[in-house]
Structures are given as structure tokens and as C-alpha cells.
């Protein structure tokens, strides 16, 4: 654990100016040093090692200095990191390009392309996939005017590729009925940190298990909290980037964390979650820890990882909104199978009816019930308006798919009268 949680070599190897030479050590200087040492006789290896170590530290320190270099006073050019979703539908890919000047809107950025045959998104004989810039965030890694760019992917003919879930979501959120309802989302992204060498949760003894769940949720202490520095670094990086992150906390299973994004309107929720995921991947990369969004990374008596999605419309937030919420829940019950199929891979290992989940095979709802498919808060019931929480999405869900499907089912989709009556009868029995 000490090695895993220690800062990277770049963070460790800071030395004072007095301990380093005034300029980088050249090959000629090394030769001169060795010749002088030989004339004096045998070199004591310990002194030579110390000097070599200081030179190595100095070199690393210079590299870190270049990484942190602010380009703003010297050029108008910026670096744009184009980010897209890979062939698995959950992996994030990115590459960089130089832009001639700072930009304020994605429409100012050029389209770009990548080799889709190397990401599982195109055949080798026709591998070009086109990136369309869609959202911009400040780059917390490069600083300055540099940016992160969330993109979606298309064929050269302009058709969205199968893993481009944003395109369909944009169609839903551009529907006037959806626009008028101003859908709000608050997404609770859970994730698990793994030790890089054994793929076992951070803080767990290798090949063994920690004490039972109980003291870890929102806990503090070396025996309860594992990975807080990563969570805190991610929190600040997201705020810097302009992501609408609203909080973080340690989760029930040790080594598991959560961050919340929102309230966000429409497709913005998906853009912000994907940008936050990318930043988290980069931070764990630097820390030498593995990030997983698997919904049940450890089988047994451990909580899984979800992506609970809080949702409301304008009608739900106004007087009499609780009746609109109940109508939305009725619609959600009728499309339970369709939602489950789109709510993440491996979710059946998580939605077992245990560990604060509902059964994947049965739709249910309740007030303040964390074991239901849909939870309604006590305040919402008391005030007669508010929001609902869909607890079914897995941690690896696509936020574009989930947010668009919620809006489609509750705003655009209308069930038949017969189906509506039957569903209402079933829900009355559940409650």
C-alpha cells in the first residue's frame, strides 16, 4: 500500500536550487569529471552514486518544469485535447492538436479524424472516423488557455457510428416538448480504485478481505479511507475545468468512491460526466492506480457500483408536481425492460435485491426506499413536488443514453390506456 499511495516520482523528486548544477550536465562535463576522479585514484562509489542521483533528480525536475510551463506570455496558440468514447462504449480515448488561438465555443474548432480500426470502431480498409467537437472544458493538466474537447464520432459520410450515443440524445433534447420541460439531472457516479499490480481494491490486503462493510462509508482514517487524495485531486480538477461537480464521498465498499455532477440541463449532463470520467482516468494514471467502473467489481457481501440518476422536469418542480412524478414512474414501470437493457453491462451482478438495490427483474418504487428501482425523497412527498431518483443505472452506464431515455419515457412516450391501467394496478400493490 505504501508504494501505491506514494506520490509519483515527479512529485517526490523536488530538490533545492543549491543542490543542483546551474545548467544541465553534458557529456563533456561527465567525461571531465571521470578523468579528474581517475587521476586522484579510485572513486568512492557512494559519492558518485549520490552525484548521479542528484543529476537524475534535476533532469526530472526540469521535465516537470516544462510540463507546468505557462505558454500564455509567449504564444497565442493553445493545445486542444480531443476526447472521444472508444469501441467498448466505456473507454475514453484522446489526442492533442495545436489551435492557432484561444476559443470560446466548440463551433470554432475544426473537425478531426482518427484510426477507428485501432479502437474497434471501423474496419482496417476504411478506418477513418471523424470527430465533431461538441463541448469545451478548461484543461486542468496543461493549464493556461488549453482545453479539453468532448467530441462525438461520425463516418466520413456524416453518419453517427454505433458507439456515438450523443447523437440520438441530442435529437431527444432538441425536441420542443423536452426543451419546454427543462429536464434537470443530478448523476451520482460511483467508481472503484484498484491496485495496479494485482487488480484488487485499494486498501484491501492482497488476496484477502478487509473487515465487513459499515465503517467505510464517508469514513475517515487510515483503516477506513483508501484513495482520498485521488478523490480530492479529481474534485479540484473538475472545478477548475468548469465541470458542474457538486460533491464527493467515500462509498460503502472500501476503495470505492463517488462524485456527483449536477444539476445539469439536458445533454450537458452527459458531456460533464464524460469529461469528469476522463479527468479521473488521467489522475489515476498519474497516481499508478487503476480505475474501474465495473458495477460489481468484487462478488460477495459487498456493495456494487451504480450511477444513480436524479431527474426532474419543470412540471415536477411546480405545484402539483408529485402527481406528474407518479405518472412518470408509471411510464418507467412499463418500459422497465428497455431501460435495464440500456443501463450498463454486467448490471445483473449488481441488481440482486440486496446491498441497497432492487431486483433487476421487478420494477418497484417507494418513498425513501433505497431498495426500490425508483426512490422518491421524503421532502418531495412532503412538499408535493420535486424529483425522482432512478437507482437502476450501473456505474458503467452511458450518461447520454440514460438521460435521453428518461426524458423520452416520461415526456414524449405515451402508453396505451389498457397498459396504463394495468401498470397502475401493479404499482399500487407494490406500494
From TrEMBL:
One GO MF term attached to the UniProt entry: glutamine synthetase activity
PROSITE patterns for this protein: GLNA_1 (PS00180), GLNA_ATP (PS00181), GS_BETA_GRASP (PS51986), GS_CATALYTIC (PS51987)
Enzyme class: ligase
Annotated compartments: Plastid, Chloroplast
Residues annotated as domain GS catalytic: 165-431
One GO BP: glutamine biosynthetic process
Pfam families, per the entry: Gln-synt_C (PF00120), Gln-synt_N (PF03951)
InterPro entries from the UniProt entry: Gln_synt_N, Gln_synt_N_sf, Gln_synth/guanido_kin_cat_dom, Gln_synth_cat_dom, Gln_synth_gly_rich_site, Gln_synth_N_conserv_site, Glutamine_Synthetase
Catalytic activity, reaction form: L-glutamate + NH4(+) + ATP = L-glutamine + ADP + phosphate + H(+)
The enzyme's E.C. designation: 6.3.1.2
The UniProt record lists the keyword NAD: no
Superkingdom to which the source organism belongs: Eukaryota
Alphabetically ordered keywords of this record: ATP-binding, Chloroplast, Ligase, Nucleotide-binding, Plastid, Transit peptide
Domain GS beta-grasp span(s) in chain numbering: 78-158
Annotated GO CC locations: chloroplast
SUPFAM superfamilies in the record: Glutamine synthetase, N-terminal domain (SSF54368), Glutamine synthetase/guanido kinase (SSF55931)
Family: Belongs to the glutamine synthetase family.
Quaternary structure (record): Homooctamer.
Protein name stated in the entry: Glutamine synthetase
Organism phylogeny: Eukaryota, Viridiplantae, Streptophyta, Embryophyta, Tracheophyta
Amino acid at each position: 500500500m505504501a508504494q501505491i499511495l506514494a506520490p509519483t516520482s515527479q512529485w517526490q523528486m523536488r530538490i533545492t536550487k543549491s543542490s543542483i548544477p546551474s545548467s544541465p550536465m553534458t557529456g563533456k562535463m561527465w567525461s571531465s569529471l571521470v578523468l579528474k576522479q581517475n587521476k586522484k585514484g579510485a572513486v568512492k562509489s557512494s559519492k558518485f552514486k549520490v552525484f548521479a542521483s542528484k543529476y537524475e533528480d534535476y533532469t526530472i525536475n526540469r521535465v516537470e518544469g516544462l510540463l507546468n510551463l505557462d505558454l500564455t506570455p509567449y504564444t497565442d496558440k493553445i493545445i486542444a485535447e480531443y476526447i472521444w468514447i472508444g469501441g467498448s462504449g466505456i473507454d475514453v480515448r484522446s489526442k492533442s492538436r495545436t489551435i492557432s488561438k484561444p476559443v470560446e465555443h466548440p463551433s470554432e474548432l475544426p473537425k478531426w479524424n482518427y484510426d477507428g480500426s485501432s479502437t474497434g470502431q471501423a474496419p482496417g480498409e476504411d478506418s477513418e472516423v471523424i470527430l465533431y467537437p461538441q463541448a469545451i472544458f478548461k484543461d486542468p493538466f496543461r493549464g493556461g488557455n488549453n482545453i479539453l474537447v468532448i467530441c462525438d464520432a461520425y463516418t466520413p459520410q456524416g453518419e453517427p457510428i454505433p458507439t456515438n450515443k450523443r447523437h440520438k440524445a441530442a435529437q431527444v433534447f432538441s425536441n420542443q416538448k423536452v426543451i419546454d420541460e427543462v429536464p434537470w439531472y443530478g448523476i451520482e457516479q460511483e467508481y472503484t480504485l484498484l491496485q495496479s499490480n494485482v487488480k484488487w481494491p485499494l486498501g484491501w490486503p492482497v488476496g484477502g478481505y478487509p473487515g465487513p462493510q459499515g465503517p467505510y462509508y464517508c469514513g475517515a482514517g487510515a483503516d477506513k479511507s483508501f484513495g482520498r487524495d485521488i478523490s480530492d485531486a479529481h474534485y479540484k480538477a473538475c472545478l477548475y475545468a468548469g465541470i458542474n461537480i457538486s460533491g464527493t464521498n467515500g462509498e460503502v465498499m472500501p476503495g470505492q468512491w463517488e462524485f456527483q455532477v449536477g444539476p445539469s440541463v439536458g445533454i450537458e449532463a452527459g458531456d460533464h460526466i464524460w469529461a469528469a470520467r476522463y479527468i479521473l482516468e488521467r489522475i489515476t494514471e498519474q497516481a499508478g492506480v487503476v480505475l474501474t467502473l465495473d458495477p460489481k467489481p468484487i462478488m460477495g457481501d459487498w456493495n456494487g457500483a451504480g450511477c444513480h440518476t436524479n431527474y426532474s422536469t419543470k412540471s415536477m418542480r411546480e405545484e402539483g408536481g408529485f402527481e406528474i412524478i407518479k405518472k412518470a414512474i408509471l411510464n418507467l414501470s412499463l418500459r422497465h425492460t428497455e431501460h435495464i437493457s440500456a443501463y450498463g453491462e454486467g448490471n445483473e451482478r449488481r441488481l440482486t435485491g440486496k446491498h441497497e438495490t432492487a431486483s433487476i427483474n421487478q420494477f418497484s418504487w417507494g418513498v425513501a426506499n433505497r431498495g426500490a428501482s425508483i426512490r422518491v425523497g421524503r421532502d418531495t412527498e412532503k412538499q408535493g413536488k420535486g424529483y425522482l431518483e432512478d437507482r437502476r443505472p450501473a456505474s458503467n452506464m452511458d450518461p447520454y443514453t440514460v438521460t435521453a431515455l428518461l426524458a423520452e419515457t416520461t415526456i414524449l412516450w405515451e402508453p396505451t390506456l389498457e397498459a396504463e391501467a394495468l401498470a397502475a394496478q401493479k404499482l399500487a400493490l407494490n406500494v
